[in-house]
Amino acid sequence: MSENRISRRDFLGWALAGASMFVLTVFGCGKREEKPVVEPEPAPPEMTEEQKKEYVLNNCVCKKCPSFVECDEDIGYCLTGKSKCIKEKKGCICPDCPVTKKMGLKWGYYCIQGSAKEIMAAEQM
Questions:
Q1: pLDDT class for 102, splitting at 50, 70, 90?
Q2: Could you give the CA distance from residue 43 to residue 119 in angstroms, rounded to a whole number?
């Protein structure tokens, strides 16, 4: 064998290392890509209270929340306020709710803490 030649074993090792580096570079070393923070747009001022209520009830994701408990009450706790039935924090999906983005809300656990108006009033005290 010539001095300039490499063994098949060395070649396969280098090829595997190169392929691994390519995959890690392209697919991000297994790290999860963080979503950019998008500031929610405030609700248009021309929306009436009735329109806001309709929007909230049509776009609410409360029933998909881990903290949700089936109860005979209106959902859309960011608008309606605290639940009579939900007492335990098991997770909150309010930040991912389309209502949060559309209405420019910044809190969570409305089902336990109260409506956005109630929370805002409490913060201003």
A1: confident
A2: 17
The DSSP letter of residue 10 is H
Structure tokens at 101: 């983005």
How far apart are the C-alpha atoms of 57 and 52, rounded to whole Å? Answer: 9
DSSP 8-state secondary structure symbol assigned to residue 78: H
Cα 73 to chain centroid, rounded: 25
The amino acid sitting at 27 is F
Claim: this prediction has a pTM higher than 0.70: no
Query: Which residue is it, tokens 């979503």?
Result: 35
What are the C-alpha distances in Å from 46 to residues 8, 51, 117?
73, 9, 18
The answer to whether 82 touches 64, Cβ cutoff 8 Å, is no
User: What ranges do the domains of the chain cover?
Assistant: 49-124
Distance separating the N- and C-terminal Cα atoms of the chain? 85
Alpha-carbon span 41 to 45, nearest angstrom: 11
Q: Tell me: the pLDDT tens digits for 40-82?
A: 555 556 788 889 889 998 999 999 999 999 999 999 999 999 9
